[in-house]
Write a structure and sequence with these properties.
With 589 residues, the protein is α+β, with helices and mostly antiparallel strands. It is built from 18 helices and 17 strands. The protein folds into four domains: 259 residues, Up-down Bundle (Multidrug efflux transporter AcrB transmembrane fold); 88 residues, Alpha-Beta Plaits; 102 residues, Multidrug efflux transporter AcrB pore domain like (Alpha-Beta Plaits, 2-Layer Sandwich), CATH 3.30.70.1320; 83 residues, Multidrug efflux transporter AcrB TolC docking domain, DN and DC subdomains (2-Layer Sandwich). Strands 6, 7, 14, 15 and 16 form a five-stranded antiparallel sheet that branches.
Length: 589
Amino acid sequence: MKISELSVRQPVTITMLYVLVCVVAIIFVPRLGVALYPSVTQPVFSIGTVWTDVGPEEVEKNVTRVLESRLSVISGLKEMSSSSSLGWSWIRLTFGYDVDLDEASNNIKDVLARVANALPEDCKTPNLWHFDVNSRPIMRLSISGDLNVSELKVLAEDTVSPLLERIKGVAAADVSGGATRIVRADVNENRLRAYGLTLSGISSSLAIRNIRSSGGSIQDHGVDYEIYLNEAFTSVEDIRQTVISTLALPGAGSAITRSHVVRLEDVAEVYETNDYTGNRVYIDGIPGLYISITNETDSNSTTVARAVREGLPEINAMLPRGIALTILSDDTTMISSTMGEVYTSAFQGGFLAMLIILLFLRSMKGTIVIGLSMPISILVTLLGMSLMGLTLNTMTMTGLILGIGMIVDSSIVVLDNIHRYREQGENAAIASIHGSGQVVMAITASTMTTLCVFLPVLIYKADLEMLGQMFGDLVVTVILSLSVSLVVALTLVPALCGSLLKINTRVQKPLRVEFLARGDRMIESVLSRLEENYAKAVAFALHNRLLIMTLVTLIMILSGVKFASLGMSFAPQASSDDMITINMTLPVG
């Protein structure tokens, strides 16, 4: 028994099965993540190693080359580049897109652990980074008020950032801008030379006298006492009075009469100031800072942004008077706007498809059958996307839009053939069985040939690298939607037609409403003229084959020339209506 025949003979079972699938889809679809673009993972790792105050040549010889020789044997490594500078070694590792990045990361960590003993003793432990393009901030919050920038930064790091990171879905709240309160010592070179001192000597003296550490423990009558050494600087004056050297001054002859203590204030001006080594941020012309909100990988960015917005009043109520935490930018508004436009396009496309079907079939029940197959196919496709871990993004929604037109193709073919058998006098059930069974191979072959166009993108996804990741979601969505539409056309459409489709000519059952009857006659007249004109066009083409082939060839050549002159880019430029960004390159120095 063919699948279409089984569907016609068990319409209730088939209908309830689709109802169940749609209910499950309605439960899972809201859990789909929403993003502007698909998740893209670059197989690139970076290794940074600090060797303080050592020249580039020594760093390259003793650190960079040592690491490169060990890292070069890692499986799957495609490219390795490095740079060495004063006190710093940087190595970039690029793997193939078909490599398991978790395994690659573990292999790199194993190599770094083994090579640690081969590096200089005073060299820092190499650090491994993997840049994730999907971890860019979704929101930026500004904080400003009646405090200076250093106090604002302390408040943001100690209070605001932890509160934001407690919000569900927030992975990190990173503070940028502001200033860190530091003690600065401006050394006078003439005095330094007069005392015979060096900067490294001063640095060592300060480090020796700024100590905070544990000294162990002692026991006395069964009681443990912890020894804690705290000789850290507590004020700027402590730093000024730090002894950095003791000079022996000779008296008359060769006898040493006294020693002279050299303090830091003797060779440098010591004062407290703000350190602006990071970004300088101004909010409406007032110094401030901003906090970048990054959402968790598997979270819905728009949902997280909404939760942050809802949590701001509570956080502001906990801040000192005069301090305000406000939204500086929200990238999810562009995501919502873009997705809203995509939803509108999908709805409009579906509505127009239904209207065209109604005009050509002029059967409300037939249109209802097709109208039911379209949202059901989309819901089942969305369910498949959810189970596969895809997100609703520009690419997947574009795939759905591309699929909407193709989704109804198979259903229309099945419906039209069933309609033809009904006009020949067969009852609904027999017409549904014969009509659908007759076109099974045709619509299956048609769907398969369409899928074959998209399958190479998945097969060669690793070779296409980032393009493969970007367009992979679109291809999967199209394949899902077409596969689901084929199953719907062979199961649900015959089952509904066997129960709903009634065939009556306009003579047997004329339209009672006059303007509807007039419209029906006008549509019939237009369709008849279209058929006649199409028949004439086909006849002309068959009698003038050389002319038609010449025109087609000419059009192909002109299209190829025009295509070569088209500009190309990885993605269209996206802009936000509520934000303007200005980049300036200043002169060196």
